[in-house]
Amino acid sequence: MFRAEVGGAIFEMESASSGEITTWLVRHADETVRAETMPLPNDRVDVWLIGMPFPAVVQAVGTGGYSVSPEVHRQRSMGGQVRALMPGRITSVLVKEDELVKEGTPLLILEAMKMQNEIGSPISGKVKSISVHEGATVKKDSILITIE
Amino acid sequence: MKLFIANRGEIALRIIRTCRKLGVRTVIVYSEADRESLPLRYADQRYPLSGSTPAETYLNIPKLVNAAKDTNCDAVHPGYGFLSEESNFVKACDENGLTFIGPTRAALEKLGNKLQARMTMKGCGVPVIPGSDGVLADEHEAVEVAEKIGYPVILKAVYGGGGRGMRVAQNAEEVRRFFRITALESASAFGRKEIYLEKRLERPRHVEIQAIADRHGKVVSLGERECSIQRRHQKLLEEAPSVALDADQRDKLNYAAAKGLTAAGYANAGTVEFLLEKTGRFYFLEVNKRLQVEHLVSELTTGIDIVEEQLKVASTESLELSQNEIRVNGWAINCRINAEDPRANFVPSPGTVIRYHAPAGPGVRIDSALFSGCSVPEYYDSLIAKLATWGVNRSDAIQRMKISLDETEIIGLPTTIPLHRELMRDERFARGDFDTTYLNEFLPRLNSTILQYEKFAAAVAAVGKVKSPSKRNGMNAAKPSRWRTMARTQLMAGPNGSGR
After folding, report:
1. Partner residue facing B460 (CB), from A37, A65, A111
2. What is the per-residue pLDDT for B468?
3. Mind listing the pLDDT tens digit for each residue in B396-439?
4. From the centroid of its chain, how far is CA B96?
């Protein structure tokens, strides 16, 4: 059995299965939940809990201590870089280069799994470049539009 | 009978199961993206189509008809979505001597699209929601009609279905903006871009009647389903029966549904959807002229295999079932498990399922084509599993659902499981006190629950990483921490002192 302390709260864990994915039973206060972990290269580990992924970065600090932070998941945009949240197809580009946009202004429509997802501008600024055209197939995380 | 299945995923598998029971031979068609999918293992024959997009495959009428003829099939089951309500497909089947498991073309024309269905129902005295009486020419006409009937309004794709191709607009600016998006969505999903609009009712419930009709005008009702738990008009949870109906209202809805289907000359399993106001007033919403996603809850409460009845009606033209044989027994709930990310506003999350473990036990049914290692392609619908539970009463079904959701393991992609988990713990849901607007109010609660579990996740992350470290710990600089968490782990001696 393992014991972990997070911000003063105690969690007790036992593993229920091992392999590429380890299953854990985690007890805290009166609650026991099942969790799965899958270690990844570098300091990353994927945790699954209540049916959700909690991707994390774990680093040793001092003796027996670890700092855990959520992997800044799927970095939607870096400043004014608008990236594809999922693979799909661009059905419509709603702005032109040099156009001024406000935060939230619809920039384009990305279709995936039959849904039309309107993608808004992460910041207010000017459309610097448009990297896609209507009908283009895009990969996940590829840059679609840059705003500055 | 040799049946051609013009669909994929869980519904293809669902249809194959009934066929195997009946001894009906099946041919499954599949796209490149689906070449390792589960239904292929259980069909008698497989027929590949080149390409992966719906247009190249499951929406491609010439290819499908050719495949069905090539494999000597005599009937076609379209499942739901794709070509299930497409009269051109029915026509192509008719012309090629293939029995379409669904309504006739004449019936489809009368209920052909949402707008025509509206006019057919209005014509036989079933109440309809105030709205436009025809296709809207452009966004200007849309604004004009909206101003006349008052906001909010719902823009609807005439050829839409399955909750897709609909947007609520609160003002003229939104009508203009959503008109474009709805038309695009409709053109891409249904191949047509016509739009009409209806007034949006205040906090209605969505209640629908599952019926089966034969070619001689006989209609049998399998009772109602309550489908008010929706996000963006997309049903997420369905149950049968509905807490909102008393015996008198149930009779009225059954009567209206039967009247409408008879007027259209409809034969097949079909669903008549209604919106129900708090006052008890109800309005016709639309007819789903196909096997529906949520048909399984009605199967659980009545014991009837709806696909089997569809096949019988199509082959013998008449229904053996009679209304007094139908007993609605107990309560059933279905949770739609979609590959969507609850953290990122439910954007689709296609990918690979690394591990899948299905729940089981008394009163538990799961309809899914998942398996460990399967891929969830980006080309198709995000529904990956339907988890349904049956109980002697509603709270019994809820308890079983709670346990079943907890047992379900879908590792690899985010799904709607956390949302259902939260709903099963919700007091208002437990009381049956909700309408079609409830889920939106409820969603912030889900986010706070996810936050609550971040400490659990931090503890597990530290132990999980340390216990089975990956090959090489790189020198990743720590990213700014939102969890601001320091997990201190220690190994305790196990019960037998082994310190596992």
Report:
1. A37
2. 60
3. 999 999 999 999 999 999 999 999 999 999 999 999 999 999 99
4. 30
> Is B222:B302 a contact under the CB 8 Å cutoff?
yes
Question: Please, are residues B12 and B30 in contact by the beta-carbon 8 Å criterion?
Answer: no
Angstroms from A89 CA to nearest CA on chain B? 10
Task: Flag if B189 and A112 touch (Cβ within 8 Å).
Answer: no
pLDDT band at B3 (very low <50, low <70, confident <90, very high): very high
**In this model, does residue B384 exceed pLDDT 70?**
yes
Q: Does A136 touch chain B (CB under 8 A)?
A: no
Residues of B with a known catalytic role:
290
Cα of A104 to nearest chain B Cα, Å = 14
User: For the whole model, what pTM was predicted?
Assistant: 0.87
Q: Model ipTM?
A: 0.83
Minimum-distance CB partner of A5 among B54, B381, B487: B487
Averaged pLDDT score across all residues of chain A: 86
| Identity of the residue numbered B77 | H
Two structure tokens written together for A61: 């600090």
The residue to which tokens 């706070």 are assigned: B448
- Please give the Cα distance from B449 to B85 (Å, whole number): 40
Q: Rounded to whole angstroms, how far apart are CA atoms B181 and B495?
A: 61
- Is A1–B492 a contact, with Cβ atoms under 8 angstroms apart? yes
Question: Do B266 and B205 meet the contact criterion of CB atoms below 8 Å apart?
Answer: no
Partner A contacted by B381 (CB < 8 A): yes
Residue B178 and residue B168: Cα distance in Å, rounded? 8
pLDDT level of residue B457 (50, 70, 90 thresholds)? very high
